[in-house]
Amino acid sequence: MIAPEASKIYDHAIEVLKENDLGTYTVPTKGLYPFQWNWDSCLTALGQSHYDEARAWTEIETLFAHQWPDGMVPHIIFHVWNDGYFPGPDVWQTGRPTPTSGITQPPVAGFAVRRLFERARDKELAARHARALLPKIDAWHRWFYDNRDPHGEGLVAILHPWESGRDNSIDWDEAFERVPTEGIDPYTRRDTQHADPAHRPTREQYDRYLWLVQHFRALGWDNSKLHDASPFQVIDPGFNAILIRGCADLAALADALDEPEIARANRVLAEIGLAALEGLWSATHGQYLCLDRTSGTLVDSASIGGLLPVFAAVPKDRAHEIARTIERQSAATRFVVPSHDPADPRFEPKRYWRGPAWLVMNYMIADGLEAIGETEVAAHIAKSSLDLITHSGFAEYYDPLTGEACGGGRFTWTAAMVIEFLRQAGS
Ligand code: DGY
Questions:
Q1: How many angstroms separate the alpha carbon of residue 389 from the centre of ligand 1?
Q2: What is the DSSP letter of 357?
Q3: Mean pLDDT, residues 354-367
Q4: Catalytic residues, which ones?
Q5: Is the C-beta atom of 191 inside 6 A of ligand 1?
Q6: CB-CB contact of 70 with 94 (8 Å)
Q7: 75 CB less than 6 Å from ligand 1?
Q8: Which domain holds residue 408?
Q9: 321 in contact with ligand 1, CB cutoff 6 A
Q10: Among 3-7, 48-52, 254-258, 345-349, which is the least confidently predicted range?
Q11: Is the four-CA dihedral 97, 212, 193, 419 of positive or negative sign?
């Protein structure tokens, strides 16, 4: 049961999800993001499952229907033509039957599918859908370790900031310097026509985003070549934690569905990943840091990517330390969790992933903290998330100092996370 005062917010969240629902997939928000995005969809399905389980399964199945033959699940599926977004299929040129981008995104599918399966009211329906998705998610997990950890270090690299989902994080600044800007085709940004340019990445960052896309395109999107050919190879602890959690969750799901080989393989991947993650710990910052694989150095940037590992089964002392770091940051901002340490002079409270708070991050971090008994910090994050909605509506992200709505409006995954937070609080 949801408390009556929250039920209006709950109904409003469902309204946002339904208005962005195009039948078999949901756009993150109309205008700014008019196609299907990978991790948006998986997290959106969690919200949908509370009012329509069959629809939630469809959301993830639509995504996996566009998995590449090598196992990669692309970050955007361009289901229908729309010129409101740049870079569109004409820039990516991946040659897929339904156009897709050529890079991937944080693999939250394993986590989402296990959660859908375990909470399902219709168990038979859930088992059918989960069983069909199981080998596809398994293939995606294996793809990561084959293609993004070619030297067997136990951690996978992102080759483009868009893969992390945290496009313009301070984490990438140094490694991004290595990406040239010469020779890119002339282009017109669309994002700044839908959202305040002061909340978005800079022109110089866009030039580099596009240089990488053109570089990978020239290599025919051949994933066996891209890793070594990329001047940008960064190991993001948050991204790896999502993958590790996904592997562990897929293993548990495979056990429940009596698929021992998938269970064993994914359990091994999760264990290897957890052991390797330890090398990214920073005692100075009380969190994990990114590793620049090209230079072999840790990146001195205390971003939310280094707090997210609580979402995976990292050692308990690490997770408790992260809880303390979040408490420390909370004292500096009115709302949590800022995507970058507010004490860092590079912190920008309104600029996308350089400071603003995001409800999806809050949800995953709170989930991990809850699991290790940090219930007070988890509850504070959940409350702060709902306070942001009351304060500013269903925005893409929020200024953690003022609560101001930033980026796109009426945002799908924000609404999905609100449903999740409210259901957790009410049940
Ligand atoms: C964008 O276009 O802003 C996206 O974040 C890329 O996925």
A1: 23
A2: B
A3: 98
A4: 167, 396
A5: yes
A6: no
A7: yes
A8: 4-21+147-426
A9: no
A10: 3-7
A11: positive
